[in-house]
Design a protein that fits this description.
Blueprint (H helix, E strand, L loop, with lengths): L2 E8 L3 H12 L4 E5 L6 H6 L1 H19 L14 H25 L3 E4 L1 E6 L2 E6 L2 E12 L3 E3 L12 E2 L13 E5 L3 H12 L3 E6 L10 H14 L2 E4 L1 E9 L2 E8 L6 E5 L1 E4 L3 E3 L6 H4 L22 E3 L10 H15 L13 E3 L4 E6 L2 H7 L3 E7 L4 H6 L5 E7 L5 E8 L2 H13 L4 H6 L9 H10 L7
Parallel strand pairs: 1-2, 1-6, 2-3, 6-17, 8-15, 9-10, 9-15, 10-11
Antiparallel strand pairs: 4-5, 5-6, 7-16, 12-13, 13-14, 18-19, 19-22, 20-21, 21-22
Helix pairs in contact: 1-8, 3-4, 3-5
Length: 466
């Protein structure tokens, strides 16, 4: 007998499971399809959550080894990598079990297996026990993304690893070469650098963090270099040979020139991610894809086939878990007859290194390119009382405001806890607030967030503490 639902969500990563739960809250009969056998997608299993566990643990390890003595705490930390990896796995398990509990609590049916869209209203689930046919009024595709692969370089997850393999290395490599100076490469590279590896980052472009505010990227590169990470910018990897001792990598200037070779025990390939849209039956169902194999949707997340929707990494936009979550909520509310909406101008982005980097809204580069007149206020953590006493003074806050209306157009932060601090900036932008609104809001003293207030005051050239 075929089971009929109001909604079937394919994929239970952050976008998928949030969509399913919100739809169930609104009274829809909902099912999810998950091929992993566990919920949470890339983010909870081999992405956001495990990497943050290792970033946190490795930061404490480095602080204990280098920062405690200056505060009168004399310790000599000893790394137990297997226990650190177990700590990471424990955190993953807790989060995954939490999603399972929430789906059950909200009476969402779970089907484990590979989901295939036969047509609008018809999903097949191919599992170990065979094929199950499900009928539904609506389908949401939330299958996420996969690692992008470098042609000619095989990832074996031992000597040449992706972000997945970089989370489970059994020993700290003496030398690690990271291909790609994006968020993932810098985060995971910083983990192993703190634990003792010599890390070199190779980037095709002449800068790190493509798309990030260039002022922030330059400052961030200087901080990472001071910490011991080295960079080969404007360079490309053209060949890789591996043997029992490690990998010999050929590196050439991106603009052309003489090649050089470098040796690494482990090579980490982090050149981006691609939407996971293959094997879903989309061609058969008639769902249109763009040139990057992303699913094309309208302003309400519906594909060209009525009744089939898509969210998260499989559609255009930043590949961020929180963006997928907001889209999941929005499409669930639309399907329930409400007015779901995502404000793509106010989606924060965070890099969880030490210090953290966070941004929301437009960068200076984008404002210049668009010809928008703006004012800028900048305040260094060196002048912030809390940062100074904590010896966490690297970085700054930068507020960009419209030159005519003073409306906040973007905020960029390099500094301690930047990922938490960016929240108030997102709120002020969501409500169309001005730099003056930020400047007039009382911030507790002594806190790091006073740097946001001072940067907002600096837009009007009246910062007090610098």
């Amino acid at each position: 007998m075929t089971t009929t639902y109001d909604l079937i969500v394919i994929g239970t990563g952050p976008g998928g499971y949030v969509c399913a739960i919100r739809a169930a809250q609104l009274g829809l009969k909902v099912a999810v399809v998950e091929k992993r056998g566990v919920h949470g997608g890339t983010c909870l299993n081999v992405g956001c959550i495990p990497s943050k566990a290792l970033l946190h643990a490795s930061e404490l390890f480095e602080e204990a080894g280098h920062g405690f003595a200056g505060m009168g705490i004399n310790v000599q930390p000893e790394l137990d990598l297997s226990k650190m990896l177990a700590f990471k796995d424990e955190g993953v398990k807790g989060n995954v079990n939490g999603v399972e509990f929430l789906l059950k609590k909200n009476k969402v049916d779970v089907h484990f297996g590979t989901g295939r869209v036969v047509a609008a209203g018809h999903v097949q689930v191919i599992g170990l026990a065979g094929t199950v046919d499900l009928e539904t009024k609506s389908i949401v595709i939330a299958t996420g993304s996969d690692i992008a692969r470098l042609p000619g370089i095989e990832v074996d997850e031992k000597q040449v690893v992706s972000s997945t393999g970089a989370l489970t290395l059994p020993i700290v490599p003496n030398k690690m070469l990271v291909i790609g100076a994006g968020v993932i490469g810098l985060e995971l590279g910083s983990v192993w650098r703190r634990l003792g590896a010599e890390v070199t980052v190779v980037e095709y472009l002449d800068r790190i963090l493509p798309g990030m505010d260039s002022d922030v990227a330059k400052s961030f590169q200087r901080i990472l270099a001071k910490q011991g990470m080295s960079f080969k910018l404007g360079s490309k990897v053209t060949a890789l040979k591996r043997d029992a001792s490690g990998c010999t990598v050929t590196i050439e200037p991106a603009a052309g020139g003489a090649p050089e070779t470098a040796f690494a025990d482990v090579v980490l390939v982090c050149i981006g991610r691609v939407p996971y849209t293959e094997g879903l039956g989309l061609e058969t169902a008639g769902v249109a894809l763009d040139t990057k194999k992303r699913i094309e949707v309208d302003g309400h997340f519906m594909t060209n086939v009525p009744g089939i929707y898509a969210i998260g990494d499989v559609i255009a936009g930043p590949m961020l878990a929180h963006k997928a979550e907001d889209e999941g909520v929005a499409v669930a509310e639309i399907l329930a007859g409400q007015a779901g909406h995502v404000n793509y101008d106010v989606i924060p982005n965070v890099i969880y290194t030490a210090p953290e980097v966070a941004s929301v809204g437009k960068s200076e580069d984008e404002l210049k390119m668009a010809g928008i007149a703006y004012n800028v206020g900048k305040f260094p953590f060196m002048a912030n009382g809390r940062a100074k006493v904590n010896r966490t003074t690297d970085g700054f806050v930068k507020v960009l405001a419209d030159a005519t209306t003073d409306r906040v157009l973007g905020v960029h932060i390099i500094g301690p806890h930047a990922g938490e601090m960016i929240g108030e900036c997102s709120v002020i932008m969501e409500f169309g607030g001005s730099a003056e609104d930020l400047a007039r809001t009382c911030h507790a003293h002594p806190t790091l967030t006073e740097a946001i207030k001072e940067a907002a005051m600096a837009v009007d050239k009246r910062a007090v503490h610098m």
